[in-house]
Amino acid sequence: MGLAFYKPIFEKLEGSVIPAHSSAGLAGICTGITQAVTLVTPLEMIKVRQQTEMVQNQTQRKYHGLLNTASIIVRQEGGLMATVARQSWGLLVKFSAYVEMKAMFERASGNPDAPLKPWQHMVSGGMANVLVGVLNSPPDVVKTRMQDAGRSYTGTLDCVKSMIKTEGLSSFFRGSWLRIIRIAPGK
Predict the structure, then answer these.
(1) Is the Cβ–Cβ distance between 173 and 140 less than 8 Å?
(2) Model pTM?
(3) 3-class DSSP state of 22
(4) Angle of helix 2-13 relative to helix 80-109, nearest 10 degrees?
(5) pLDDT digits (tens, 9 = 90+) for 47-79
(6) What CA–CA distance (Å, rounded) separates 11 from 35?
(7) Tell me: the pLDDT tens digits for 12-22?
(8) What is the dihedral of CA 36, 126, 172, 27, to 10 degrees?
(9) Cα dihedral across residues 167, 142, 147, 131: positive or negative
(10) At 38, phi and psi to the nearest 5?
(11) Rounded to whole angstroms, how far apart are CA atoms 28 and 6?
(12) Strands, E assignment, 37-138
């Protein structure tokens, strides 16, 4: 939905206000911000809190149901900026890479007006998703760390600094292969 809404807006500005071929990437950023603020952050935070809460018995639970968990998160926790960064960066990479991959197939065909074959769309989407799996791993790891109730960071930048200092740059790519395997087949 976000791409269909934002891309036509940016296409009107391409070449005059914004650089050529940037509408897909800018639409990706706006879509990512919209998703992060309206759906992804709230729902993932609730899911992570309910899945990772360790309790001795039911009377010691901090989170009790959807609304209670949401209320506690809003009042006491955070993670919005990390999720906004992950969503907007990931969709910038995905939309831009998909458009550029399709353009490569169009140029290679010798007839840029001919429609692409289904396999070319599939390869374009798959390769775009592989790039997302690699390039979006750092903000995804930071987002997950920020949502882990067992960790205490003062903010997104504190999380990044702590990871670099204590675990090194490779810590930002933990789980990348699994993300690639999971998202590459989708478009």
Answers:
(1) no
(2) 0.66
(3) coil
(4) 70
(5) 877 777 766 555 677 777 778 777 776 655 656
(6) 21
(7) 999 899 988 88
(8) -30
(9) negative
(10) -90, -35
(11) 8
(12) none
Buried b (16+ CB within 10 A) or exposed e, 106-124: beeeeeeeeeeeeebbebb
Q: Compute the distance between CA of residue 79 and CA of residue 86 in angstroms, rounded to an integer.
A: 11
Distance CA 142, CA 169 (A): 12
For domain 2-183, give its CATH number from 1.50.40.10, 3.40.50.1000, 3.20.20.370, 2.60.40.10.
1.50.40.10
Distance (Å, rounded) from C-alpha 128 to C-alpha 100? 9
Q: Cα separation of 71 and 3, whole Å?
A: 31
Place of tokens 């169009």: 106
